[in-house]
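BUG-170 | component: ligand-complex export | severity: low

The export step for coenzyme A jobs runs without errors, but we want the raw record kept on the ticket for reference. Input record follows.
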Amino acid sequence: MAGRRSPARAAGTKARRTGAAVPPDAVKVRRAKPDDFAAVVGIDARVTGLAKPAYWQDVFRRYGRGAAAGRQFLVAEAGGKVAGFVIGEVRDWEFGSPPCGWVFGIDVDPDRRQDGIGSRLFEEIGRGFRQAGVTVIRTMLSRDNALVLSFFRSHGMMAAPFIPLEIELA
Ligand SMILES: CC(C)(COP(=O)(O)OP(=O)(O)OC[C@H]1O[C@@H](n2cnc3c(N)ncnc32)[C@H](O)[C@@H]1OP(=O)(O)O)[C@@H](O)C(=O)NCCC(=O)NCCS
């Protein structure tokens, strides 16, 4: 799939914006560590309107330091504070698909947006996926979330050849 894409649509090749974008060295993207817990829960609560500490404890346990190979939980640190995070994982042969990198979640502090931080996170997780040997990134988003759709489209992501299905259990 990725081999058929034009170079401009390959993950991580979006031309950096000029002007207000944060200089790359002003933002450090690194693996999440236990000290980041409160900041991550806080950003997620601001974005979604719901604090979910138990969920995040589980994410830190499974995707934080010492996580299984292929799992990534990265934070962007700007001005000494966590300004955003991204979580993803290489999944092998699920849905009949060769191994690919799934991005499960990406959030940037609402006060730090449109400054290139989300792009830095996406580029770094893409780098990690490439190092893990995969050449395709997938994600899923709510069809109402025009902001996230615009963000992923800006990084060259296109509709995938899969259809999500669901049913409400009685
Ligand atoms: C999507 C999100 C991660 C983008 O982070 P960001 O740091 O603001 O993104 P960037 O500054 O790197 O922007 C990259 C591109 O995304 C698009 N984009 C970003 N903000 C946008 C906006 N408000 N409207 C339209 N497009 C936008 C643009 O194409 C932008 O490129 P450009 O500035 O050259 O036009 C951030 O807005 C966010 O956390 N949103 C909420 C996420 C969410 O709902 N998460 C739950 C489901 S995973």
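Assignee comment: Attached the raw record above. The beta strands are 27-31, 71-78, 81-91, 100-108, 137-139.
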